[in-house]
Amino acid sequence: MRFRHTVLTVGLAVAAAGLPMAGTAAAGEKPAAGWITATDYSSGSPALAALDPVSGDVTGPFAQNAEDGVVSPKGSAVAYIQRDDTCIPQDEGCMYARNLVVADTDGSDQRVLVQGVQPEMGGSPYVGQPDWSPDGRRIVYSSPRGMEWVNTDGTGQEVLTTAGGAGTFSPDGRSIAFVRTTSQETPDGWKSSRDVWIMDTATRQVRQISTAGNALSGPVDWSPDGQRIVYTTEYGLSVVAVATGAVTELQSGWTTPLSGIRGPVFSPDGTRIAFSAMDDFAYTRSTYAVDAADGRNPRVLTAQAVIPTDWRTK
Known about the structure:
The chain is an all-beta fold. Helix content is 0%, strand content 49%. It has one domain (7-86, 95-312): TolB, C-terminal domain (Neuraminidase, 6 Propeller). It has strands at 7-8, 35-40, 47-51, 58-64, 66-71, 77-83, 88-89, 94-95, 98-104, 111-114, 128-132, 138-143, 146-151, 158-161, 164-169, 175-186, 189-200, 206-208, 221-222, 228-232, 237-241, 247-249, 258-266, 272-279, 284-291, 299-302, 306-312. Strands 1-4-3-2-27 form a five-stranded antiparallel beta sheet, with no helix packed on it. Strands 5-6-9-10 form a four-stranded antiparallel beta sheet, with no helix packed on it.
């Protein structure tokens, strides 16, 4: 496999959303630079791609039938989830495993690091949503068993917790943030809630960060300074302060209602957050960026159906 670098020109209209496109910054506004790794679903099958947050150009595909791509800290390798071509026979047709794959960024030395794990209740074997440790030695990922990690040489595979799924390393590598589901008994029966928790990578001790109980399962992202975590909720998008647990709801000032938010990631300077969402007026999915402090200044980065996985400096 070779990574191809083809610019996909995006000309879809977003006038219905009433939001500016990438490349049309208001006077005095400097768009956050760098580039965003993403999964492109515009062709119907997932593929690895890159998004320029300034121009809105989508580059790719770099790998077909692949998703959740993240580049290593040194920029020399990429980890992603790829559907296996081997048929697992069923009564009708086939199912296919989704494996954790690591390759050099030029597409060479491609290897399966972790095979898909079979769910207890049946279905296709899978792992998903990888993230590199800042020192590049480990990758954390989700599986039917919970949140796991593995050394990049394939050794040291370990289930860190059965109560969480996708994990994201803190910038200093000392913690992993994840969404945990808990159940509480109430007078009306048992009630489940989901919040952001962090795990100490040395002690495996966990600590609850958010308390509203409205987080959605899926990857979260740390701000570059390690002081905030962005996550999706039942109502939109929130940022929680790690030290205090104070939550800022970013969607409160949006004039265009957005739903189905996925893949929130901080910009390298921590001032913006990119994410994919559905415009409830136009019924179209686009990738947006908003101010990280308060959710203001929403901007359409691209009207192509791409889900961010990371935002890096060039």
